[in-house]
Amino acid sequence: MQLEKQVIQDMNSDALSAHQRKYNYISGEIANAAKVVEKLEAFNIAIPSWALGTGGTRFGRFSGGGEPRSLEEKIEDVGLIHALNRSSNSISLHIPWDIPDNASSIKFLASQLGLHFDAVNSNTFQDQKDQALSYKFGSLHHVDKAVRRQAVEHNIEVIKYGVELGSKALSVWLADGSNFPGQLNFRGAFQNTFESLQEIYDALPDDWKVWIEYKPFEPNFYSTTIGDWGQSYLLANKLGQKASTLVDLGHHLPNTNIEQIVSLLLMEGKLAGFHFNDSKYGDDDLTVGSINPYQLFLIFNELVEGMDARGLDHATGIGWMIDASHNVKDPIEDLLQSVEAIKIAYAQALLIDQAELKAAQQNNDVAKAQEILQQAYRTDVRPLLAEARLRAGGAIDPIAAFRKLSVRDELVKERGLKTVATGL
Ligand code: PSV
Ligand code: MN
User: Are 304 and 352 in contact (CB under 8 A)?
Assistant: First the structure.
């Protein structure tokens, strides 16, 4: 199923006058409305191929129907999201869940929908059918060189698929760790991981990057070999220029100051990008901005300030991607909400007068600094987002349009009620 521009424009006509009233109001309230809209128009967030189906937990999975049955259908779903919000122009694939049988036709389909391929993700956290050696005790850190070799080769194969599709980065997340004290020699595991990553690094094309994701626990519950940003940063530094650290918001222990991590990684030129989600307790993979939108805003404040300091383009300077699980919501609606929350935080951060904030910091004027941040955070920037979408040919209200156009019903009709997407 595809959504034509005209259909979306027709949807917009009902909401147009209310939108214009709100947009005119905010344009009068803030100094840089036109500039913010321009930046919002350029800002896109990649959709992970594994988030287009219903998520689940180890206790169960409740499919909502009409899930994409193939890579082609996953790409179509991202096309639907992008047609509605004009902010999701790329897809991130997980191999082997999404092996492209015919790369050129997959690429063609994506380009027809205005999409390209973001980072490709390797998977050495599960055993695949017909796999020679098991990852039960880890992959790149494994005590057995033959297992490490198999995992390295898998990553090199993922790069090969990525090259065919025009990706420019390999994203590596390892489940490697231990469940019990004494199970692992920490130094040995770290050293093995480094050496395996070095082999992968050496296989990267010149214009490619490798992004190293960290996570403190799960599936292992005593230690994780790349458990925090320090360990990821250490590896990225040892590897070289093409390696950097990927921040998944859910991969922190409770109350971690993520904005500070982001600021320092950016300062060191080692922030690869993001996996956006939100959490209340652990790696909950909830919709970004649904639990702690203020934290998201504070992260974007550091991003805007830090990227400007390094002269980085906000839209392309680092990788922006969602990594969430939609257990009880329609995945497409959830992804639309995620993109909206990310862009709200970004727009609010753009409202901060950085010179004024620096002056307050310089004068130790703590109350003023807080006022500046909260003034921006409490501004309703949604009309700016809607205006950016409208100008780009998207929907003023993407979820309302998705519902009015009965997109899910159409997908169920096309694909069936009991389809299951590949992935977790
Ligand atoms: C692990 O929790 C993770 O965040 C990694 O990014 C994986 O690639 C992704 O989830 C999908 O399982
Ligand atoms: Mn992730």
Answer: yes
**Average of per-residue pLDDT across 66-82:** 97
pLDDT surpasses 70 at 350 = yes
Phi/psi-derived region of residue 423, left when phi > 0, alpha when psi is between -120 and 50, beta in every other case: left
Ligand 2 is an ion; its neighbours by CB within 5 Å are 248, 275, 323
Q: What is the pLDDT of residue 206?
A: 98
* CB proximity list for 138: less than 8 A, separation 6 or greater: 147, 174, 175, 176, 177, 189, 225
Hey, which of 93, 171, 245, 275 would you mutate to test ligand 1's pocket, going by the most ligand atoms within 8 Å of its Cβ? Answer: 275
Element (H, E) at 118: strand 116-121
Provide DSSP, 242-272.
Answer: TEEEEEETTSS-TT--HHHHHHHHHHTT-EE
| Distance, CA of 147 to CA of 257 (rounded, Å) | 36
Q: Could you give the 3-state DSSP secondary structure of residue 209?
A: strand
Distance from the alpha carbon of residue 213 to the mean position of ligand 2, in angstroms: 7
Average pLDDT, the chain: 97
CA–CA distance, 223 with 221 (Å, rounded to integer):
6
Ligand 1, atom nearest to 175 Cα = 1
Asked if residue 230 has pLDDT above 70, the reply is yes
Query: How far is ligand 2, taken at its centre, from the CA of residue 199, in Å?
Result: 22
> In whole angstroms, what is the distance from residue 319 CA to residue 43 CA?
11
Q: What is the distance between the alpha carbons of residues 244 and 266, in angstroms, rounded to a whole number?
A: 10
pTM of the model: 0.97
- Give the mean model confidence (pLDDT) for residues 184-188: 98
Does residue 422 have a pLDDT over 80? Answer: no
- C-alpha pair distances (Å), 18 with each of 40, 114, 390, 396: 20, 29, 13, 10
How far, in Å, are 251, 302, 357 from residue 362 at the CA level? Answer: 33, 17, 9
Atom of ligand 1 nearest to the CA of 424: 12
Is the pLDDT at 424 greater than 70? The verdict is no
Q: How much is the average pLDDT of 37-65?
A: 94
